[in-house]
Amino acid sequence: MAAGKTSLGRRVAKELGIPFVDSDVVFVRKHGAITDFFAAHGEPEFRRIEAEIIASELAEPGTRILALGGGAVLSESTRELLRRHPTILLMTTQEAVLRTANISRRPLLRDDPSAWGRILAERKPLYLEVADVTFRTDRAGKEQLTRRVVEWARAYARRERAAAQVAAVHAAAQPGGRGPAASKDAETVQAETDTNHPGEPGANLPGEPGVNLPAEAETHGVGEDQD
């Protein structure tokens, strides 16, 4: 929670030329303020609806960054979905959170801000279970973090494309396979993949429908992550 998902997510999405979606913002648009919903309906009902929103967003075609609230990983169905997508974990410290976050808008911290450390300890194994990479938001400036995340995303996409092309080559080389791709080997495919222009918006991102870049953590979203 409160690791800076909003500002970083927006910056990365702008740099990559892709949409940025925050599951918390989608929830608020449909159901009102999260703090009020927690008070009226409780956390289990919030988590149920949150999981439905995340599943719906991940089912949308096209590449985007999907920012998740810190407690989203408590849902097994959400964790299963995240394992199928490149997932970034943002980490920070309790000191940084208490210094910068609006605690009054976070239902799990409002009455006991020091609970952040306990909540992190409980959720961290789940974060690490689904995360492909981790970035510390308390140890670098916004521009430096943005550059690092963008570079990671583009490298991830190049690897995915190369793997897909190699798989296609192998499939074409099997009995019954066809097409000129059968004459290419893995090194040739990798060399061709690495020639993508790094400045072309979205050029180095996964482009298949349903392939997204969920931004996970005790952190991530548009607006504030409140849980």
Task: Please characterize this protein's 3D structure.
The protein has helices at 5-16, 23-31, 34-41, 43-59, 76-82, 94-100, 115-130, 142-173, 186-193; strands at residues 20-22, 65-67, 88-91, 133-136, 213-217. The relative contact order is 0.25. It has 227 residues and is of the alpha/beta class. It is globular and about 65 Å long. Residues 180-227 have low confidence and may be disordered.
Strand and helix layout:
Elements lengths: L4 H12 L3 E3 H9 L2 H8 L1 H17 L5 E3 L8 H7 L5 E4 L2 H7 L14 H16 L2 E4 L5 H32 L12 H8 L19 E5 L10
Parallel strand pairs: 1-2, 2-5, 3-4, 3-5
Percent strand: 5-15%
End-to-end gap: 6 Å
Main sheet summary: 5 strands, parallel
Number of strands: 5
**Cα gyration radius (Å):** 19 Å
Share of helical residues: 40-55%
On the 0 to 100 scale, the average pLDDT is 77
Low-confidence stretches: 180-227
Strand order within the widest beta sheet: 1-2-5-3-4
Total count of helical runs of at least 4 residues = 9
Order of H and E elements: HEHHHEHEHHEHHE
Secondary structural class: alpha/beta
Q: Assign an overall shape.
A: globular
